[in-house]
Design brief:
- There is one protein chain.
- The protein is an alpha/beta fold.
- The protein contains 15 helices and 13 strands.
- The chain has helices spanning 32-35, 51-54, 74-80, 92-110, 126-137, 147-153, 161-167, 191-195, 214-222, 242-247, 260-278, 307-318, 321-330, 335-340, 360-369; strands spanning 2-6, 21-25, 40-43, 61-64, 83-85, 118-122, 141-145, 170-173, 202-205, 228-231, 250-251, 297-301, 352-356.
- A 6-stranded parallel β-sheet has the order 7-6-8-9-10-11, with helices on both faces. Strands 2-1-3-4-5 form a 5-stranded parallel β-sheet, sandwiched between helices.
- It is globular and about 65 Å long.
C-alpha cells in the first residue's frame, strides 16, 4: 500500500515504513497526480482534501493529526466512499496549559485572587472540560455552558449562556465552529452578546476566530463592555485585524494547542486510525524523539508565598504566555512562520517539582494539575 504524509507531521517518521510505501510531501505540494494511486493520506490543515485532490484516486482513508477538519470536504468523502478521521482532544492539555498561564498572568498584572472569581466555560468538550477542571482545582467558581451536552445528559451541572453573561468575571470559549442550526457558533460573540454582559468580564478565545465577530469585540472593548480580550484565534488569519490586536491584553498566533505533547498525541492517534482501518498491526506505536524541556526540574521554595503564588510559579515556569505575546506583536507579518517554527513547549507532566516549605494541600493541587 501507499501512504502520502504531510512532511510537517511531527514524530511520524518510521511509523509506516515497514508496512507501506511512504512519500513525505509539503501539504501544498500534495496534488491529484501524487495521490492518484495512494491508499491513505496523513495530513494537517495545509492539505485541502476535496474533490479536486481526490477525484479518480484510490484513496480510501484520510487521517488529519489535528482537532479541526475544515480542510476535509466530508460530504465529498462520504459520497466517494472515503473514510476519514481527525484527532479530537489531542491538544486539549496544551490549551489547558495556555489558559492556566493566561489566568495567572492576568492575576499577577491585575492583582486578582483567582479563588474569588467566577469563570464561564462555553463549550465543555475535550478542551473545555479540562479547562474547567483546572479552574476548579484553583478554587474558582465554574459555570459550564454546553447546550448539546445538556440536551444529551440533562440540565444538572450546566447553565444557560445568559447566566454566563450575567455572572462570569471571565468567559473562555471552547466551541467548535458551527455555521448554522440550533448550536450555531459563528459570530457567537456579536453585538447582542456583548450588550448582555453584566460584569465587564475578560473574554478569551482559543477555539475558532470566526466565533467572535471582529467589529463587535472591538466596539465592546472601546465601550467598556469587556475589561480585557485574550485572543489566540482570529478572523481572517493570518491577515488579522491590527486594530483589534492593539486592543487585546494578550495576543498569540493560534498556538494555544501547540505543545509538543499535543502534536505527538495527534500523530499517534492518526497512526492508530490508519493501522485500525488497514489492519497494519501498529496499534501500540509510540512517537519517538519528543523534545524534553530545557529545565524539566522545577525548584520551588514556598517560604513567604501564598498558594496562588506557588502554583503560579510552577505553571509560568512551564509556559509564560507573555513570551508568545511579545514575539507576535513584534512581527505580526510572520504569523504562519511563528506557528511553523514554534519553540518547544511541554505540558505539566513533563516537569518534576522539588518543593520545600510548601503545604501538603498545595502539593496535592500541583499533582492534580499533572506535575510530578
Amino acid at each position: 500500500m501507499k501512504i502520502i504524509i504531510d512532511d510537517k507531521i511531527p514524530y511520524i517518521q518510521g511509523a509506516f515504513e515497514e508496512v507501506a510505501e511512504v512519500i513525505y510531501l509539503p501539504g501544498a505540494k500534495t496534488t491529484s497526480e501524487v495521490v492518484k494511486d495512494a491508499d491513505a493520506i496523513v495530513t494537517r490543515t495545509r492539505t485541502i482534501c476535496n474533490e479536486k485532490l481526490l477525484a479518480g484516486s484510490s484513496v480510501k482513508f484520510i487521517a488529519t493529526a489535528t482537532i479541526g477538519y475544515d480542510h476535509i470536504d466530508t460530504d465529498y468523502c462520504q459520497a466517494a466512499g472515503i473514510s476519514w478521521t481527525n484527532a479530537p482532544g489531542c491538544n486539549s492539555k496544551s490549551v489547558e496549559q495556555y489558559i492556566a498561564s493566561t489566568l495567572f498572568v492576568l492575576a499577577e498584572t491585575k492583582k486578582l485572587q483567582l479563588k474569588d472569581l467566577c469563570i464561564g466555560v462555553v463549550g465543555v468538550g475535550n478542551v473545555g472540560s479540562k479547562v474547567a477542571n483546572v479552574c476548579q482545582i484553583l478554587g474558582m467558581k465554574v459555570l459550564l455552558n454546553d447546550p448539546p451536552r445538556e440536551r444529551a445528559e440533562g440540565s444538572s451541572g450546566f447553565v444557560s449562556l445568559q447566566q454566563v453573561m450575567e455572572q462570569a468575571d471571565i468567559i473562555t470559549l471552547h466551541v467548535p465552529l458551527n455555521m448554522k442550526g440550533a448550536d450555531a457558533t459563528f459570530h457567537l460573540g456579536n453585538d447582542d452578546f456583548f450588550s448582555k454582559l453584566k460584569k465587564k468580564p475578560v473574554l478569551m478565545n482559543s477555539c475558532r476566530g470566526e466565533v467572535v465577530e471582529t467589529n463587535a469585540v472591538k466596539s465592546a472593548l472601546k465601550n467598556g463592555l469587556l475589561s480585557d480580550f485574550v485572543c489566540d484565534c482570529w478572523e481572517n488569519e493570518p491577515a488579522i485585524d491590527l486594530e483589534l490586536l492593539s486592543l487585546t491584553t494578550i495576543a498569540t498566533p493560534h498556538i494555544a494547542g501547540y505543545s509538543k505533547d499535543g502534536k505527538a498525541t495527534g500523530t499517534q492517534m492518526s497512526v492508530k486510525a490508519i493501522s485500525d482501518f488497514f489492519n497494519l498491526g501498529l496499534n501500540n506505536w509510540q512517537p519517538k524523539g519528543v523534545e524534553v524541556p530545557i529545565h524539566p526540574t522545577l525548584e520551588i521554595d514556598g517560604a513567604g508565598l501564598t498558594e496562588q503564588e506557588i502554583i503560579s510559579t510552577a505553571i509560568l515556569a512551564t509556559y509564560d504566555i507573555r513570551n508568545d505575546d511579545r514575539v507576535f506583536r513584534n512581527d505580526t507579518e510572520s504569523f504562519e512562520q511563528q506557528r511553523g517554527d514554534y519553540p518547544v513547549r511541554r505540558e505539566f507532566p513533563a516537569f518534576t517539582i522539588h518543593a520545600k516549605n510548601v503545604d501538603a494541600l498545595v502539593l496535592e493541587k500541583l499533582r492534580k494539575l499533572g506535575f510530578n
